[in-house]
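Question: I have long wanted to understand how a fold can be written as tokens. Here is the record:
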Amino acid sequence: MAQPIISIRNLTTAFKLRSGWFPAVRDVSLDVERNETLCLVGESGCGKSITAMSAMGLMRTVKGCRVTGEVWFEDLDLTKLDEHAMRTIRGNRLAMIFQEPMTSLNPVLPIGQQVGEPLMFHRGMTRHEADEEAVRLLELVKIPDARRRLNQYPHQFSGGMRQRVMIAMALACGPDVLFADEPTTALDVTIQSQVLALLDEIREEHAFALVLITHDMGVVATIADRVAVMYGGEIVELAKTSVLFKSPRHPYTEALLKAIPRSDQDTKDLCAIEGQVPPIYDMPPACRFAPRCELREEICVEEHPDLRTRRGGKTHLTRCHVRNRVSRRSAA
């Protein structure tokens, strides 16, 4: 098997509160293959964005935050690099599309200057060269009349167009890995579909790895090759998209799928997940999902479950005492 383009090992990101250190992301391990789309899914507060920002090295300079573990990019452990070395990689070979473009774009700088900045910093282009490349990038993300709009400001663009500008900025230096943090949030369904199709089209054309963060299982079904379901700062299920939708193993994954609205079902048939994701200072000591789980047993509140494969296969992992026990029994 080819070496993953990025490999996360035992990543833990903890925040210091008054009563001590509390992990928002706990012992996360992930491999992302070249030219693959991996989706991180789960409710808000499950640790998806913190995982991506920790992998990018954006959390280690945050006061009151502690990051441990390894993040291997090819043959480099990014956690061992200083900030100067990270700046040569971040925005260049690793890039990120942030969740809300209006707060990520500088409101007082023209779009062309913002798209061209990484080209000048990482590629050593002149202002004129960067402007010409910015026009090409804006055309790549299908912004009409790109040359004229180069000198416009973020407030002069619609939400969907601002998101396209963010994609252009992230793609400027031809990254090997692109993290996209809920890039379709707050967009209407039509624009959401266009942005997703654009991301997938560009990924196939430029052959980079895409790590897409979302809470929308419909988005996952549209674009993902593999899915990592997160809950309480942990990965609770990891599988190929087709396998996960056909045979979900973890009760949380099943609940997420049941909560998806369908055109052939009445809205009264939607199954909401009772309760909410616990805060990091009040996480259950064993299974994080146990307080909300209909399959909960005594062991679920006493012992922390491991992320295990189903017998006979290595590509479908589940963190559940009950389901893993049933799987082993049925395979015996």
DSSP finds twelve helices and twelve strands in the chain. Residues 6-93+173-331 form a domain with the Rossmann fold fold (CATH 3.40.50.300). The two ends are 29 Å apart (CA to CA). The mean pLDDT is 90.
